[in-house]
Amino acid sequence: MKTALAAALLLTTALASQAQNHNAVLPYESLDGTAADAAASSSEYLAAKARWHNELAAFFRADQQQFPAPGGVVFVGSSTVRMWKSLAQDFRQVPGIVNRGFGGSTLADCSLFARDLVVRYRPRQVLVYAGDNDLAEGRTPLQVLESFARFANAVRAELPNTRISFISIKPSPSREHLMPQIRETNNVISAYLNRLPDSEYIDVFTPMLGADGRPRPELFRSDRLHMTDEGYRLWQSVIASHLPGAAPAPVPVAAPAAALP
Fold this sequence. Notes:
Radius of gyration: 18 Å
Strand content: 5-15%
Oligomer: single chain
Largest sheet: 5 strands, parallel
């Protein structure tokens, strides 16, 4: 365990150093091109673009109708973001909220589409939620960290002043068997962000646990994966303090356990 933690610490330090050095050659970057150009021409990117064609086309159509003004706040990630239908209303005091969640996506997908779904909007802040689908597909916490580092590098390469916020992986009841990997992933990404300027880790994991240390069932739908309105109210209350101008909301707390007879 100590060896694994030491390896994670070394990796987070190395990845954070790469993210700060915009001239560094990254693991996925060719010597004669930018990371974005390399990703755009890679077979991995092209395969992902084909897989998510309908979702990307929908975003393109929305942009054609009204392209978001620069300087906004982009939320990107998996179905938890996509299904947050009241996102703009929940943070109505914050100008320029853009939802670019696409259901079933992974953090690896988000890293490939960083330019398509983040950089093109030139936001002042990006909040990303993804990673649990990666773990469910068998990726390790360090592989998820590497995907997040690629995402951060791609954003910082073109938007050095954009704040990068990672919303911790939530403890879904249907994925309770992955809790050790979820905790480790959250820990290594948090450590990475501690070394990356103008970035932050937003902990929604902890308040979504009950007094027994297990996921709070009232925060989740019947599929035990996606969130109820109460779950989104909790997220709103936690995230509001990380968005300049957002009104604070009360944090929904777990109901006290019934007293024993």
